[in-house]
Amino acid sequence: MARAISYAGRHRAPARSLRTRMTVPALATAAAGGVLVAPTIAHADTVWDKVAACESSGNWAINTGNGYYGGLQFSAPTWTGFGGGQYAAYAHQATKAEQIDTAQEVLKVQGPGAWPVCSVRAGLTKENGLAVDPWAGTGGTGGTGGTGTTSGDLVVDGVLGPKTYGAMQKWLARPVDGSLSTTDKKALQTKLKVAADGQVGPITIKALQRLVGATPDGVWGSGTTKALQAYLNKVL
Predict the structure, then answer these.
(1) How many CA atoms lie within 13 A of 119 on its CB side?
(2) Is 38 exposed, middle or buried (CB count within 10 Å of its CB: 0-12, 13-18, 19+)?
(3) Are 154 and 162 spatial neighbours (Cβ–Cβ below 8 Å)?
(4) Which pLDDT score, from 0 to 100, does residue 32 have?
(5) Which of 33, 59, 73, 136 has the most C-beta neighbours closer than 10 Å?
(6) Above 80 in pLDDT, residue 107?
(7) Which among 91, 103, 114 is positioned nearest to 15, based on CA atoms?
């Protein structure tokens, strides 16, 4: 499943070529018009704080009407395309930790160039950007398959998201990008010893449920996801 590339920091115009070569994945998004959430402190003075200081003067709740939202100035398609919709409809409605968590998903795919000017000013790299624990000091655990713990274990929250998909890819010895492609699905089916057609239907789901200890009813619900997350925490 292709990743969306539509983010451009507010300091440059969106690149047409980047907008046309990938599509936004079909991720569930929260309803618009959510309640504004006050930003929380997540590991102050990290490289992400420096990026935000450049992008938005460090205002994690900013919405100026320019089409970019929050401290790191996400466009709406990029926010939802990289899993931000699990937290809020728009980035400025999410907490600082949630914005950084989503930014790390962008960083994995697009690299620091997603923030073309401010990444340079802040010294952002993949290494230092991904090394930040967004949830440090918040008392939170993250959501939708987030890590949320210092040990790196998945949160067993029963909701599929980029980090649960990424853990599945690691388990399947596949490249990790936080989405599940047809090739990944075939690898899952091969591991489960069912027909590898790339279509995750009842037979595949039942085989997975038996493996992870969920009720084998052939329906992938939150109970199956929780069992999968707990299983991945044990085997990874």
Answers:
(1) 20
(2) exposed
(3) no
(4) 36
(5) 73
(6) yes
(7) 114
Q: What does the block give as tokens for 135?
A: 């949830």
**Containing structural domain, residue 80:** 16-130
One-letter amino acid at 166 equals: G
Q: In 114-148, which positions are buried (b, 16+ CB within 10 angstroms) versus exposed (e)?
A: bbeebbeebebeeeebeebbbbeebebebbbbbbb
Residue 69 maps to a domain: yes
* Cβ partners under 8 Å of residue 48, min gap 6: 72, 100, 103, 124, 129, 132, 134
33 in any annotated domain: yes
Q: Say if residue 31 is in the same domain as residue 80.
A: yes
On whether both 82 and 184 belong to a single domain, the answer is: no
Alpha-helical (H) ranges within the chain are 16-20, 47-56, 76-81, 96-110, 118-122, 126-130, 162-171, 182-192, 202-212, 222-235
Confidence category of residue 143, pLDDT binned at 50, 70, 90: very low
Predicted confidence (pLDDT) per residue in 22-73, tens digit: 233 323 333 333 333 333 333 348 999 999 999 999 999 999 999 999 999 9
SS3 content of the chain, % helix, strand, coil (to 5): 45, 0, 55
